[in-house]
Amino acid sequence: MSTQASTTPSGTDPFGVSLGQLLDLRAAQRADHPFVSFPDGDITYREFHASALGLAKGLVAAGLRPGGHVGILMPNCVTYLELLFAVHMAGGVAVPINARFRRRELAFVLAHSDVEILVTTDLIDEFTDYTALVGQALPGLAEHIDPAAELRLSDAPRLRRIYLHGTRETPAVRPLSELVAAGRNTTAEQVRQALDARSTEDTAVLLYTSGTTADPKGCELTHGALVRSWSAYADLVDLGPDESMWTPCPFFHVGGIGPTLSALVRGATVLSMGRFDAHVALAHIERRHAEHLFPAFPPLTLGLLRTPDYDPSRLTFVRTVLNVAPGETQQVIADLLPDNAVLLTDFGMTEGAGMITTTPTDAAVADRVHRNGVPLPGIEIRVTDPEQPTESLPVDIPGEIQFRGINAFRRYYKDPAETAATIIDGGWVRTGDLGSLDARGQLLYVGRIKDILKVGGENVTPLEVEAHLTTYPGVHMAQVVGRPSERYGEEPVAFVELASGATCTGPDLITYCRDHLASYKVPREIRFVTEWPMSATKIQKFKLRELLA
């Protein structure tokens, strides 16, 4: 018996509006209610809308036309979100750029994405000097002496203006205040016309996935896909208009944008922060009594729950927590949470507007810990033979996960070949992920197909070995990759980070695996690390493989 899982498709979003129009509605309805909260203060819907409108007027005055692209390169802050919505109010497409990108990646995105306007910051954080990075990615900037003149760069032919959020004087870069000032002669009606020129099925954001061996791919996500999918998540957790949702995820990631939209559709409050600091985050969550937490990834979730001043009694008001991890890690997290907090997980990706499946809040604990849930309303999933992608597989047989529905991305920007290879007959989207469906339609995520190791003819799923390693006392995190082997083709190697103060040896962990796993799954070597090569939210396994070369 083949299997496929779905919930009743709605076919339309619950509002029929774009992101800019939705902000207009909520600002009118919830004017004095906090919309965005950072550790240093809150901003109401009225205040946020006024700031976004001022920026939108500036964008129109700067020549942005409906469908034009605006890049945003900065860490999380209120201004980031105001810019994001200002672009939509002005009828444009927002291009949130990964703040972890280096010179080559940024240069590629600025050229490939056709951004006409770029907004960045003069901040220097632990990862990036943003203005210096822009200068490195666009070496032609140094030749532009007059900041009032439009740019003409061979490196990024469509880029005309760069604005800076901050006070540092930088050649060819204008202060963001100048953009706001330029918009004072633009009327609200002009902004309204630009906003109404776009439909819910037009592209809202262009998000670039982190490249591994190739350049990043630009995923076009529509207004409708974003509103529908994150409205469905708000429904799932029953987010109330007077409640709050916390996410430390970056705004250039769907894990940051999505919870913001869940709050917006309900007229609720979203909490975020610039740089993750567990002590500051805990105090902020406590101050705002955030009922819903969306840390999404173990480094953030465990970072919060293992900070020295954490105690479950401080978060008794929390109703839901979403984290994506193997069952063993989920159980560790569940044991740290207050009794009333329901731990959820999901399966998602950028191409699915962030979330494809999630665990219902009333699911059995075992299902919430060890399964990845069921499709959100309006989404279908199936598991197929990776070699024959239209052939569904029987229950509990692993294969490639595919999905279709209200959340699907529109296309890869300027990449018709990759789009055609990913969106196949019937609108099914190939994920490149391995998983299975049980008889109840619940998904079990196994791992990336390309990460599966072939050890002496046997398939080894890194996630299984990683999950087992994290059950050893003192192991904080583990990642398993393959190393070429003349005898076996590939052999597993584990990178392990220990918890603070913990001690163990490589032979200890190898013995622990040998006692519980088939011999071909046992890592041949353990390498201890204190930090990981990261994208915005995930460990970059390809860089771990490079360390073995």
What distinguishing features does this structure have?
549 residues, alpha/beta, Rossmann fold, GMP Synthetase, Chain A, domain 3, 3 domains, seven-stranded antiparallel sheet, 17 helices, 31% helix, globular
What is the structure about, briefly put?
The protein is 31% helix and 26% strand. It is α/β, with parallel strands linked by helices.
Model description:
This protein has 17 helices and 30 strands. A hairpin with a 2-residue loop joins strand 26 and strand 27. About 1% of the residues have low confidence. Helix 1 packs antiparallel against helix 2, helix 1 crosses helix 3 and helix 8 packs across helix 9. It is of the alpha/beta class and 549 residues long. The chain folds into 3 domains: 235 residues, Rossmann fold (3-Layer(aba) Sandwich), CATH 3.40.50; 181 residues, Rossmann fold; 97 residues, ANL, C-terminal domain (GMP Synthetase, Chain A, domain 3). Strands 1, 19, 20, 21, 23, 24 and 25 form a 7-stranded antiparallel beta sheet that branches. Strands 3-2-12-11-13-14-15 form a 7-stranded mixed beta sheet, sandwiched between helices. Strands 5-4-6-7-8 form a 5-stranded parallel beta sheet, with helices on both faces.
